[in-house]
Design goal:
- It is built from four helices and ten strands; from the N terminus they run ββαββαββαββββα.
- The longest helix is centred in the last third of the chain and has 14 residues.
- It starts with 8 loop residues before the first strand and ends with a helix.
């Protein structure tokens, strides 16, 4: 089993620079893209993150990249969302209390969208906040997405999650 300190976030697809980012890489991202306390943007959440803009600066997606594929292998959860809708508000959480984000907190990484309803698109919902994130893929077209498609599926997913916690 991999130690969480060895875990990296894979970033690939339509990018100039493919990445495998460790917690140390996230900590070294310039201060302009750091969110030292997520609570200021998402009350009730704790931890450190970088903005999606910070990730974009590192990987430099091509103009053809219109979608962001968010993949969590641990729970086989995948979301493909329009990049433009989350470009200015998306966060990648990498730590809590300055320690690598534990699986119990949704680690190794978490994609978060503060006030997701403000994105004004049906493609962005609470389930676009992807936990257990280990891979981000930039694509021209919508990619694999297995989020619930209706309210019943959505309720069942969250009921299942609550029985596991």
């Amino acid at each position: 089993m991999k130690n969480h300190m060895e875990t990296a976030l894979k970033v690939n697809g339509l990018v100039q620079t493919e990445l495998n980012l460790s917690i140390e890489d996230f900590q070294n991202v310039t201060d302009a893209y750091q969110v030292v306390d997520i609570t200021t943007l998402m009350p009730g959440r704790e931890g450190q993150a970088i903005t999606l803009e910070g990730l974009l600066a590192l990987c430099q997606p091509s103009a053809e990249a219109q979608f962001l594929g968010l993949h969590g292998t641990l729970d086989d959860f995948h979301a493909s969302i329009p990049l433009a809708a989350v470009r200015e508000r998306g966060l990648i959480q990498y730590a809590k209390n300055e320690q690598a984000l534990d699986v119990k907190a949704g680690g190794p990484f978490r994609f978060l969208i503060p006030d997701h309803a403000a994105c004004n698109t049906d493609d962005i919902d609470e389930c676009a906040n992807v936990k257990f994130l280990d891979h981000i893929e930039f694509t021209a077209e919508r990619g694999f997405d297995n989020r619930p498609e209706d309210e019943d599926e959505h309720a069942a997913l969250h009921a299942h999650e609550n029985t596991e916690n």
